[in-house]
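Retro notes, item 3 of 5
We never archived the inputs for the calcium ion complex last cycle. Fixing that now. Sequence and ligand:
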Amino acid sequence: MSLLALSDRAERARTPSLLSSEVLDRARVLDTLVNNLDGMAFRCGHDATWTMIFVSEGCTALTGYTPSELVASARTSWEALTYPDDRARVRAAIDEAVRCGRRFAQQYRITTRDGDIKWVLERGVPVADEQGSTVIEGFIENVTEQRAMIEALEQAELRYRSIFEHASEGIFQTTREGHYLAANPALARLYGYTTPQELITDLSDIGRRLYVLPGRREAFRRMMETHGSVRNFESEVYRNDGSRMWISENAHIVRGAQGEFICYEGTVQDISERKHYQEQLERQANHDLLTGLPNRVLLGDRLSQGLARAQRLGYYLAVVFIDLDHFKFVNDSLGHAAGDHLLQEVSRRLSACLRQSDTVARLGGDEFVLVLNDHYHVSTIISLLERVLHQIHQPISLCGRSLQVGASLGVALYPDDSEDAASLLRHADIAMYAAKDRGRHNFQFFTRDLNRMAEERLHLEAAMREALEGDDFDVHYQPKVDHRRRIVGVEALARWHHPTLGPIGPDRFIPIAEETGLIAPLTTAILRQAFAAARRWNAPGEPQLKMAVNLSARLFMSADIVSHVLGLAREAGIAPQLIELEITETVFLDHSQGAIDSLRAFKHHGFSLAMDDFGTGYSSLSYLRSFPLDIIKIDRSLVTGIEREEEGALIARAAISLGQSLRKRVVAEGVENQAQFDFLRCQGCDEFQGYLISRPVTEAVLSEMLAGGGVVPRATQPPGPPSR
Ligand code: C2E
Ligand code: CA
Ligand code: CA
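Structure as it came back at the time:
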């Protein structure tokens, strides 16, 4: 109800008994009130120009016109003051209020006397006047300032909205519990939704649906609650389609004026690319480029993690050193590309054998290391290793051929063998060498004995280097005789008498020399002495004496073995025709083309080739036939016991007849008694070597034997200084 109406009616209805002076007084108070209001009270007709019947003093401040200028439209009408664009709207609203007999409120513009535009708020009510016609009573106030403020707010809101809508970063508001209150289109896009609304509805539980790592949301929440904000909070999250991405979040708590919690608010950035790049760098630093396996650096990490875990849980941890057998031959003969391919295939197979928690690392070359975690029994480790050996042994197709590779595995166990990473690795390495010694393609566990042997080996290696420098290796010669006991040749055998360790047999130092590469200088030293002795024994006029020397299969890995041996023979002035090269069949085992070429070249230069230790290995007939061998040496183990055992005799007989049928000269070694000699001679052996004839002796002793006619008499077996 309008103010005027109220004052009017109040007087009439509620105070009928008041005196007129009181009535006037109240009218004056009201008048003062009305005229001092910031705004204009009015009564106007419901007509085309809103003809003012009454306006209060505030009219002047509001419009610039005095009340008398406005009442009865003396100077201007209210319709004229109303801003033309707003007239229709205002009239429609008031007409409607009149029709329904309701109050109304309208904001519109007026033009003041000075031509200023002001925003006004008109609140009014239609009432019937004394004549019963409808008039409007009400109050009009200046709201230009509020209006400007609201507009500014609206503009600001619009601007923020625009930032929110168009930002390239995802923006969100969530509850503490992890429900979205708001999300912008960028966030929806980031997470793979078409609209923010879709995201808000679908991602109802952020903690469980968004983060890949369980507990990540909880970590976020904890930081928010303790610090009020998080900075660069990086997490991996699931997108709508299930794919993963990396994000970085910056967020803070929004609080109301009283400090009450309103929401979490923050931004989300897609950092997948940076993460990817970081990961790539990390991978490069921690992984082997060829196979993608962890490298030595990462192996160290994994091993210490594994050890901490094993210690905590009381499990075994196994470190397994793996070395591929004869890898170098593949690399040398089929080329590096084939070698690379083989390594990649092996690493795939190794990975496939292991569980997620285990590690397979490549140390370089053909060396791999496994770290096996969480084993409660050694037996499960063993079955795993059997599976590994089996998998590695499956044929691999390389350069169009199918190839089988073996591997030697050495195992060290935590806590049994050692407690720290470095010694576990060292012990596994030692055990791996033991596996190689035991004929390859097997696994060996580290033992204290192995450790002692390994230490001794290290010690011997150092001593051997010294001995080579000091030229401390000697050569003894063991004669070979024909069936009439005439000395036809000798075998040169390396001897080493260490000043403090005493005599060390070749069975001990040759394998170490082969592993350490010392075999090359050692062979040179032995060959020099042997060739020089051969030269002295084959002076012009003397009966010819063949010099047999042993060449390790290892030496055939280098291409210049032929020119090297040839050079030594020339240096000593001895013809290759007087030299027999004893090799073992491991030379053929890898079918290395290089080794076969070397054998042909030796043959071409006039050297004789002897297969040593015949009958102990694989003795495949195919290479006996196809390679240019001259001699086969029946191994000592076949000779031992032939005079007593039916079966032994049978094998020896078969070996001899095989050699004969291939037209090779057959030499029996390790002949220790007359019965053996007689048996072998009957079977058609060509030459005999063994303690029955002579132990290996010094050059001087052998020279004496030769000077005595070169026939070793039957009864007088020369004792000689036993050299083994
Ligand atoms: P091998 O080539 O089979 O040499 C024959 C071995 O049998 C020699 O042992 C010799 O002393 C021994 N022997 C000879 N007659 C008899 C016998 O009647 N009874 C018994 N029980 N043994 C007999 P040694 O000198 O200890 O050499 C052992 C192995 O060391 C050799 O076996 C050979 O493989 C290797 N070796 C020795 N010297 C050299 C060398 O200069 N270079 C290379 N690469 N290997 C060598
Ligand atoms: Ca030999
Ligand atoms: Ca032998």
